[in-house]
Design goal:
Order of helices and strands: HHHHHHH
Distance between the termini: 43 Å
Number of helices: 7
Structural class: mainly alpha
Membrane topology: Multi-pass membrane protein
GO molecular function: manganese ion transmembrane transporter activity
Subcellular location: Cell membrane
Protein name: Putative manganese efflux pump MntP
Function: Probably functions as a manganese efflux pump.
Radius of gyration: 17 Å
Number of domains: 1
Length: about 180
């Protein structure tokens, strides 16, 4: 069994922070919706799970596919974020109807996938096996889950300060991140 030195752990932790920052940024925008604490917990946990699953799938498929799938993953993530952001913006101008893509059910899965797709090529490039790969994946999940919770809680607090404009601001941020990924 491989041992992990402090420098290795620092590198892994910094990589996890880098991968989790998109979930943090998007989580800030999503947190501007009126979310209950139970929903926030579920969202963070789901995003953390996907940040474990995506690199795991990447490790299984192997590094030979990384160049082909990396561009596709970014495009898909951009389209998903633009769609979620546009839905949030348009929902603000409608009567209080049911959300088309709420952070629950299928909408939650789409959100988790969109912020986790960038970890897929990381898994492809890691090419590790055994206990060390498991350790890295768990760190990715824990860090991303924590960052998502923090962002959602900050966004939730900002929602109380911004009121009705919070949905438009959050949707605009998500749409902007989507455009940034696409272009």
């Amino acid at each position: 069994m491989a041992t992990i030195h402090f420098n290795d752990f620092t590198t892994i932790f910094m990589m996890a922070l880098a991968l989790g920052m998109d979930a943090f940024s998007v989580g800030l925008a999503l947190g501007l919706q009126q979310l209950r604490l139970k929903r926030i917990a579920l969202i963070g946990f789901t995003v953390g799970i996907f940040h474990v699953l995506m690199p795991f799938i990447g490790i299984i498929l192997g590094s030979f596919m990384s160049t082909k799938l990396e561009g596709i993953a970014v495009v898909i993530a951009g389209i998903l974020l633009c769609g979620i952001g546009a839905q949030m913006i348009f929902q603000t101008f409608q009567q209080k109807s049911k959300q088309v893509l709420a952070p629950a059910g299928f909408g939650l899965v789409l959100f988790a996938i969109s912020v986790s797709l960038d970890s897929f090529p990381v898994g492809l490039s890691l090419g590790l096996s055994g206990a060390v790969a498991f350790f890295i994946l768990i760190i990715f999940g824990i860090v991303t889950c924590s960052l998502t919770w923090l962002a959602l809680l900050i966004g939730r607090r900002a929602n109380h300060l911004l009121g009705a404009y919070s949905e438009v601001i959050g949707g605009s941020i998500l749409f902007g991140f989507g455009l940034l990924l696409l272009f």
